[in-house]
Design a protein that fits this description.
The protein is an all-alpha fold. 58% of the residues lie in helices and 2% in strands. α13 packs antiparallel against α14. It is elongated and about 155 Å long. The chain starts with 39 loop residues before the first strand and ends with a helix.
Length: 634
């Protein structure tokens, strides 16, 4: 059977082609209607098309081969089970074979391009064939535009593997990455022009968000999204842009995997399937995160949500360890909600509420950070720059460790409410920070008190170890007053609190001469303040100058507060002295002695009345005795 062209069909139709396109109200088998009866039926899936051999074989190499290879030369039915895009795309391809103009859009271009490959509608079969037509549309309308490329890439997901074979997927991904980097460069140059204009700009259009196209990536499946993001990373897209894209995609993807009532599907096939999807998603997202750094563009809140999902979905140990390290690097930027990570109880009603082991590792990572990178960077600074950095509120060590200490104290107060939390785990968390990390121990004392209240039946040895974590010298006056009356504390701690409070009061009453006690100057038993460089480890010796300046300011403020306190204490001291004089035991002895002297005086008066003749001698003796009595009284 030879190749039949459309030109050979014209005489049989009286020089006219009366084909009409299909209507939405007409079944596919009724298309096309012509004066020539159908001689070929093509089945695409469950849909049949009554067509003609001549226009089809002129454009489609696949149909031509099937007809040539058929044993029956009068074959009238062909089955095409795997046409990309199904009956819809085949109908468009068939219309193209009949010379009918078809509309190519974003929604059908991917299917048409793959259908042209499947039906072999190439230039080798006919000039300006469907493959050429679709390629022109892709190059002109799709590849130059990021949003259009993402939309077409999304439609390619259902056309695997043929969309990969025609290299449509790889071309789209590369164009998305290239255009994204070009847009990033253009945006940066426009900002420079706006900041330093070389000529007056009359009308500056409002700048579009730099990540506008990143939101549309949420429509892609995980595999395509991973390939796109890996490509844009290699092309040099900024990390903050990558972080924004990751956060948006993760939020949109996880939202569809949440179950409103997990108890209904706990342990069921649906629950296991959802856990598997969550596990694959989280592990893939973690692998795409930018490099670990203390100044990472990935917010700690997002990392915390990933870790919570990773624990609930039973992700791999390496995935959770990666997230824990990233959170530990940015721990000073976190809040309490970020570290309240629920434990995976696996249906155990007696399990812990929060995953304290994970938090213990996170805080350990923060405390054991490798400082080599910071030291190398600091060696490049001169002395003035170094003093400015470490003397500012943004000190990378002093400020960070103080923030982390407050964060840990708040966390301890929260987890102390868990009745299933053991004392050993609580003590391990409480003892985690070094002594210089806490200037005031009020937060730790509050957490310990809550734990003792929730766990009244713990052993005395554990109670003693809990209270040993508190430095009584760092308690405020309010905390000392509360601790002195707290029946939940061991007697040893109450005595210790009263002892240090007495020393503090004595120092204040002495005019602040021993104020150094509060700052550990010469007192080896009191841990150094976190601002002190000596022995604390918070600031290295090269930062000693800045540390001393900061310590001096703190000392001046503390002395000013102590002077104000001293003024009030002096008034109390006077009143206390008066009360002591009134209530002193020596006063009672003095009163009894005075009574005895008054009785002796009365006896002398009787003798004087009996012997007035004693005259001068009696008078002198009386006055001498009275004088001695007055002298003894005074």
């Amino acid at each position: 059977m030879g190749v039949v062209t459309v030109g050979e069909l014209k005489p049989s139709v009286s020089g006219k082609r009366t084909f009409r396109p299909s209507s939405s109200t007409r079944h596919a088998t009724e298309w096309p209607i012509s004066d020539v009866s159908s001689d070929l039926t093509i089945e695409v899936g469950a849909t049949s098309f009554s067509l003609h051999k001549f226009p089809l074989v002129s454009k489609s190499g696949k149909i031509r081969k099937l007809l040539l290879e058929a044993k029956d030369p009068k074959v009238s039915r062909i089955h095409l089970p795997n046409v990309p895009g199904g009956p819809e795309s085949f109908e468009l391809a068939a219309k193209f074979c009949y010379g009918i103009n078809i509309e190519i859009t974003l929604s059908n271009i991917a299917a048409l391009r793959c259908a042209a490959c499947y039906l072999e509608m190439t230039e080798d079969v006919s000039d300006k064939n469907l493959e050429c037509r679709t390629e022109v549309y892709i190059k002109d309308m799709i590849l130059p535009n990021i949003s259009n490329s993402i939309s077409v890439l999304h439609h390619c997901e259902t056309l695997i593997p043929i969309s990969e074979e025609v290299k449509l997927v790889s071309r789209l991904i590369n164009c998305i990455a290239n255009n994204a980097c070009k847009e990033q460069l253009t945006t940066g140059l426009s900002k420079l022009d706006h900041t330093f204009p070389t000529k007056p700009i009359s009308n500056i259009e409002s700048e579009m968000p730099s990540d506008w196209w990143g939101k549309s990536l949420a429509v892609l499946n995980l595999d395509f999204f991973q390939r796109v993001l890996s490509t844009v990373k290699t092309k040099g897209l900024k990390q903050d842009m990558i972080s924004t894209i990751l956060i948006n995609y993760t939020q949109c993807s996880l939202q569809g995997l949440l179950v409103k009532d997990p108890q209904l599907v706990k342990g069921s096939l649906l629950d296991l399937e959802l856990q598997k999807k969550q596990r694959v998603l989280v592990e893939t997202i973690v692998s795409l995160l930018p490099s670990q750094s203390r100044k990472s563009s990935v917010p700690i809140a997002f990392l915390s949500s990933l870790l919570k999902t990773a624990i609930s979905a039973s992700c791999s140990t390496s995935c959770k360890a990666d997230l824990e390290r990233r959170i530990g690097l940015q721990l000073d930027q976190g809040i309490l909600e970020d570290i309240l990570i629920p434990a995976n109880s696996n249906g155990n009603s007696h399990g812990l509420i929060y995953d304290t082991d994970s938090i213990l590792r996170i805080f350990s990572i923060f405390l054991n950070l490798d400082e080599d990178e910071e030291e190398d960077h600091s060696q490049m600074r001169d002395e003035s720059d170094m003093v400015y950095d470490f003397d500012s509120p943004g000190s990378p060590k002093q400020t960070s460790i103080l923030k982390v200490s407050k964060l840990l104290d708040n966390y301890l107060a929260e987890v102390a409410l868990d009745s299933n939390l053991t004392a050993s785990k609580f003590i391990a968390l409480a003892e985690l920070l070094p002594d210089h990390a806490r200037i005031v121990n009020d937060g730790l004392y509050r957490a310990v008190d809550i734990f003792l209240k929730v766990h009244p039946n713990i052993k005395d040895s554990e109670r003693y170890r809990l209270c040993k974590t508190i430095d009584c010298q760092k308690l405020s006056q309010e905390a000392c007053s509360h601790a002195a009356q707290n029946e939940r504390l061991p007697v040893q701690m109450a005595v210790q609190v009263l002892y240090f409070e007495q020393i503090r009061l004595r120092n204040a009453m002495n005019g602040g001469s021993n104020t150094q006690f509060f700052f550990n100057s010469g007192n080896p038993q009191f841990p150094q303040r976190s601002g002190s460089a000596g022995g604390s480890g918070a600031i290295s010796p090269r930062d000693n100058y800045a540390s001393v300046r900061r310590e001096n300011r703190e000392l001046k403020l503390e002395v000013a507060r102590m002077r104000m306190r001293l003024t009030d204490l002096e008034k109390d001291h006077v009143s206390m002295k008066q009360e002591l004089v009134k209530s002193h035991p020596a006063n009672r002895i003095f009163k009894s002695f005075a009574k005895k002297l008054s009785k002796l005086n009365a006896l002398f008066k009787v003798k004087e009345m009996k012997g007035m003749s004693g005259g001068k001698g009696g008078t002198e003796s009386r006055f001498l005795f009275q004088k001695r009595r007055r002298h003894s009284v005074s």
